Amino acid sequence: MVKLIHTLADHSDDVNCCAFSFSLLATCSLDKTIRLYSLSDFTELPHSPLKFHTYAVHCCCFSPSGHILASCSTDGTTVLWNTENGQTLAVMEQPSGSPVRVCQFSPDSTCLASGAADGTVVLWNAQSYKLYRWRTRSSVFSIGIMWSGLSSQNLGCFFYPYFRSVDKSVIVYDTNTENILHTLTQHTRYVTACAFAPHTLLLATGSMDKTVNIWQFDLETLCQARSSEGHLKQFTEDWSEEDVSTWLCAQGLKDLVGIFKKNNIDGKELLNLTKESLADDLKIVLTCWTHWGLICSGPSDVLLLSSTQMSTTESLGLRSKVLRKIEELRTRVKFLSSEIPDEFICPITRELMKDPVIASDGYSYEKEAMENWIRTKKRTSPMTNLVLPSVVLTPNRTLKMAINRWLETHQK
Prior knowledge:
By secondary structure, the protein is α+β, with helices and mostly antiparallel strands. The chain has 3 domains: 15-225, Methylamine Dehydrogenase, Chain H (7 Propeller); 230-284 and 325-337, DNA polymerase, domain 1, CATH 1.10.150; 342-411, 2-Layer Sandwich (Herpes Virus-1). It contains 10 helices and 21 strands.
């Protein structure tokens, strides 16, 4: 479940961007201002709004530490602000004078990149505020900057969904399955910005309706968004009880979370569960039997017999599903433990490729997964986030033969 917990209506024009630090939310707008809010109660800070830009502010971002905020504008400048007092630290002018559309700090806070409407991308020294280097690509509109070298975080796991806004809604996807988790429809005009808070189940969305909505996700959404594939990257034997609960939710077995927690089932015990232990130790069969007996029992022996049959069928079906999911988990864990070469893994599904194809970005993907990607996420590369020159997919027969040879060896 997702609920709207707060609406900010301080901007006087379209909201262009939202950004979180660990304690603050920043928003910027066509009204030329940047506003700062505390995440504790969403009150605006005393030194907000921040005013310097003479035209629309297109983007704002925090440094990794959260102490510095960068903003960029149609006026051709990128400004650095002290988030504690709102003072201006530096004003950096784009060499070409073109409107600056995006800005982004490097993961180590040493550099800041700014991209302009004429295709120029500038790298600034974030300590000395001096230009480090810049590059121009004609007829290219800079719309996004992404740094590599982030910590070993799989962007396909947990919470990095894909959004659409042309129908005034925000659509939250599970990037592992591409299933729609939620559709948020509170805004009255097109949605122009969205951002997740770090380590907090909050989402901020900005719109042409001049408002910023703050949404809060519950743990059920967390269970939905996490998939078992994401957890298989670590040793299942080391799973905590919470990890097991998350796995149960992802498998559609949320009703069993309480039983598993009550019996302190961690990853190691999960893999060792059997038909007998499910019935004798976890009492799954007995629980269903008693439940149906209380509801369906009556003066008629025929009715009582019928209720007994239903309880047996119901419990056997539940037990069979749990056993099947555990066996699938054992198989996947065993398979992954054989150390599949990275080049055999599809970057989208994170699974062994069966029908690899080469895309125009030069990377290989599972054919069906890449076709779905192009169909649902338009013409962008899953690896670089750049526009694909072509949507033609070429069979990678050499890679397919290598995978088949590896499989033959593995099976032996």
